[in-house]
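Revision sheet: structure tokens.
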Amino acid sequence: MGNLTSRGFDDAILTGLYDGLMAPLLTNVVPSWGVMVLGGFFLLVAAPTESLISGLVAVLAAAVVVAMVLQILVYREQGLVSRLSLALTGNVLLTLGFAVAFHLVCPLQ
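Predicted:
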């Protein structure tokens, strides 16, 4: 493990990754994904066909803002980049899923 220590990883960070992962996920990442899911379903039900993709981009932007704000409000130095990466990657994948669903429900031009 000497190689990991020389790269800037110490045992406290590795232990924190496994032991304390659930609480940061619930407070920082999952609410951002929730905004994306709720916004996507709202668009699917309420938005006209012409504005689905632009609405989806707006919901993605709102979810990213929520992720950033949560990182500031519930600030924990350990794993900050990992949590932001996880939140943003999840939001982009959810956006992709909703774009495919929109295309299946009503073909977009």
